[in-house]
Each structure stands twice: as C-alpha cells, then as structure tokens.
Amino acid sequence: MPTTSSAKPAARSLLKVLGVAFGIAIIVGNTIGSGILRTPGEIAAALPSAGWFMGLWFAGGLYALCGAMTMAELAVMIPKSGGQYVYARRALGEYPGFVIGWTDWISVCAATALTSIALGELSATLIPSLAPYQTRIAVMTTLAFTAIHWIGVRSGDRTQQLLSVLKTLALLAIAAACLSRSAAGDVAASDAASDAAARTIPSGMFFASALVLSFQGVLYTFDGWNGLVYFSGEVKDPGREIPKSMMWGVIAVTVVYLALNWAFLHVLGIDGLSGEKFAAVAAAKAVFGATGERIVTVVMAVSLLGNASAILMQAPRVPYAMAEDGLLSRRIATVNAGGTPTTALFLSAMVSIILIVSGTFQTVIALAAFFIVVQYATTFASLFVLRYKEPDTPRPYRAWGYPVIPAIVLVGALGFLAGSYVTDTANSLHATYVVVASYPAYLITRRLVRK
Length: 451
What we know:
By secondary structure, this protein is an all-alpha fold. It has a single domain (14-449), classed as Amino acid/polyamine transporter I (Up-down Bundle), CATH 1.20.1740. The chain contains 17 helices and no strands. It has helices spanning 20-31, 35-46, 50-77, 84-92, 94-126, 134-151, 153-184, 187-198, 204-222, 238-273, 279-288, 292-314, 317-324, 342-358, 361-389, 404-423, 425-449. The radius of gyration is 22 Å and the shape is globular. The relative contact order is 0.20.
C-alpha cells in the first residue's frame, strides 16, 4: 500500500471566487476601448441623421443584450471556464471545438498585442521623449499584467474592478462636461445643422447598405460583452450571478455609449461629427480648449489599461480548457495556488509579445474580425443543438424569448458573416483557408497529446 508521502498530490483547480462585481467589470473592461472614441464619426458620415445615429447605438446595445442573455444559458448550463470553445465542443464535437478554441485564443492574443501597442503610442503622445520606446512600453505593459494575473485570480479581480470603475467614471465625466457645455451653448444651431444633414441621407439600396455597414461598425464597438463566459467555472453562484452580471454589464456599456454619443451630437451636431476621425477629441477641444486632446488621450490610456487587463486575464482560459479536455498537453492545465492557469498565462503572454515585437499582430487582427463572427454564430447555433440533443440537462437559467430571440441573434451573426465576404473578401477568404488548414493541425495535435 502506498504511503501518504508517496501519493501523487491532487492537481489544483480554478477557484470559484468571482461574483457579480467582477462579472460587470470584466464586461465593461473587455468591451469599452478606443472604438467608442473613433467609430461615431464613421457612423455619422454614413447616416447623417441624429435620429438614425442614436437609434443604431441603442439597437446595438439591444442586440448585445439579447446575445448576452442567450449565451448566459450556455454559461450556466455548462459552468466551465474557457469561453465559446466549451459550448462548440459540447454541441458539435472535438474538431469544431478545436477550431473555435484556437482561433479564439490567437485572436485574443492579437488583441492583447494591439491594445499594448496602442498604450505605447499614447505614452509617446503624452510624453514625446518616449517615442523611441513604444514597443518596449507595449511589452512592459503585457509583462506587468501577466505578473498581476499570475499572483492569482483575486488579484486580477481587484485590478479589473478598479480599472473598469476608473474608465467608466472618466468617460461619463467627458459626456457630462460636453452635455453641460452644449446646454449653455448654441443648441439650436446644432439641431439645425443636424436637420440639414439629415436631408442628405442615402435612399433605396444605398440606404440599406449604409445601414447594414453602420450597424456592423456599432456591433464591433460592442464586441467584448461575452467576456464573463471565459470565467464561468470560477463564478461562485453561476446560476444567479452569470445572467445578472451579463445583463448589467451590457446595460452599463450601453449607457456609457449612449451618453457619449449624445454628448458628441450636442457639441458637434451631426454635421460636425460626420467623418471626424476622433469624435471625442473634437468634442473635448470644443469644451476644454487646447487641453481637450490631452484630456482625451489620458482617458483613452485609462480605458486601454482596462482593456489590456481584461483581455490578458481571459486569454489563458481557452488553452486551459482545451488542455483539460485533452486537446492540448495536460501541462497547459497547470494551476497555481492563486487559481491562475500559469502555463497557459505565460504561453498567452509569450505569443502576445512575439506579435508585438514582430508586428504581425496586424495580420492576425485583420483575420480576427471574421473569426469573431464565426465564434458568435457557432455559439448561438450550439444553443439550439444542445436544446435538441440534451433536453433533460438542468438549465437553471433559460435564454430570453426562446426560440425567437436566440434565432434573431443567430441570423444576425450569420448575416454579418456573409457580409464579411462582401465587405472584406480578401481577409475573409484567408481566414477560411486558415480554418480549412486547421484540420491537419488538429489531427497532429490530438495524436501527440494522446501518445
């Protein structure tokens, strides 16, 4: 009989310590980035009408909310960390799960690189003498958050809550300042400019095309609302806290977006907003004068810090889950005493740093837009598959309005997938080739892991 000293110690597991506050913070941190400061000008140029402009942002929030409450059923039914890979594997099998898992992981690593590079660029904008060190700053940012998350999931939880609160308050402060200035300024002139611009709205097929492309831009700005599903296995009470977190997280993001866009309209009018590369900078200059650009740059840096933390925290959960299921080496499923999948974290950080230093993150990001839509469509489809295959599996929470609302978000995702082939044919085809080429990689990986 083996002695106690010779017995193999039990492998550590992820810790179930996360609550609603973290859930909301990770959604806010994962979703709100620099997109909301850039995209409004593009939307206003395509649809120069204040009504349509604000309506699209509200519709984007509503679509994200429906998607979140649909995905929440899967997250509660299968409370396992790992993101959308978990649902694709359960519903569709190993290979579809493998495709969703590795494309998701690579996309997240590229997003980490992109966010860190953006922080390096913002640092150089604030302090010009740092311009030669942008890449080093990006690498140091990644390493700093790697260290924070390596300490443990509680450390990551506290950091994410702090950064998300700072981000939200900073953005709402800008919105409040803009709205205050507009209320005391020439609102009538702004409204008149909006009415004049509204007469130039495209019609017929041109209007339909502008509407679809604009809505696609809005939805990309909302991307990230699914951040909590990467941590489902670490939530203390998934049946209650996951749906609540996802609902209030998306509502919080929507409120911030509506407040900012309303503020931009009040200060600039639809005509002044149209085509503005950085709507927030233009609005801040109108309110704060020459210091407006610097204020927005600082707010962008705070926002991107929250992004970088959230993205790097979720990245290792995907390879961790794949390793747990035997699709990657079991060594990648190593967890430290703080509840962090350490090997997966270091691997994710290493890939992100390679993408930063080599500059290849731009190529991956171009393909990631296609991968993201595929992942959403696969997840929404998985809900229907599992309702059919596993009707008796306990579901403490069920999707709103099934089957109508889940069908709407699924059709929407499929529509945007088809639209990707039309609006970005080259990258969509390249992404398709990558997916096809993944099958030999899957076979080789499975053989190596199972030897």
